[in-house]
Write a structure and sequence with these properties.
2 helices; five-stranded antiparallel β-sheet
Length: 157
């Protein structure tokens, strides 16, 4: 039984620490150029936190409702108004919360920055997710250095 625990621990250490942190790259550039999805602070959420509840429109007319909040187990979901289907655009896992959401209407891409500390080892992490709204799938995700990213979008009133 002890060998199994050791194997699981070693696997977890490698899984959470072997990902290389990016300081440059196309996903960082695309996220930095994308427009902010309006974010509000605490609309009906306890404790109050950053939250998204906004419909975006792609250049070809497709509309998608973006929602989520910076909460434990937080994720960003997208519901397509044409058929009502819902997809998860970004889910970084426990203790890594959505922090910023941006949108490129011409490319039809949604970007989510998620930040926090992994529960097992407590190390700070920042992830970028790129979700293709036309193909309805995640295109890319990357562990990034938060110091190379632009400031998070300000809350709207």
């Amino acid at each position: 039984m002890g060998q199994i625990r050791l194997f699981v621990l070693l696997f977890a250490v490698c899984f959470f620490s072997c990902a290389r942190t990016m300081r440059t790259g196309a996903i960082i550039d695309r996220y930095s150029r994308a427009e902010c999805v309006p974010v509000r602070f605490g609309p009906g959420i306890q404790p109050p936190t950053r939250a998204w509840d906004h419909t975006v429109k792609l250049s070809d007319g497709v509309m998608a409702h973006v929602s989520g909040a910076a909460l434990p187990g937080g994720r960003i979901d997208v519901r397509f108004t044409s058929d009502g289907t819902q997809h998860t655009a970004a889910n970084a896992g426990d203790y890594i919360y959505p922090a910023d959401v941006r949108f490129d209407d011409r490319a039809g891409l949604l970007y989510v920055k998620a930040s926090g500390h992994r529960a097992v080892f407590g190390e700070a992490q920042t992830w970028l997710f790129e979700y293709d709204l036309r193909q309805r799938r995640e295109r890319e995700r990357a562990l990034v250095d938060p110091d190379v990213l632009p400031p998070e979008c300000p809350e709207t009133r």
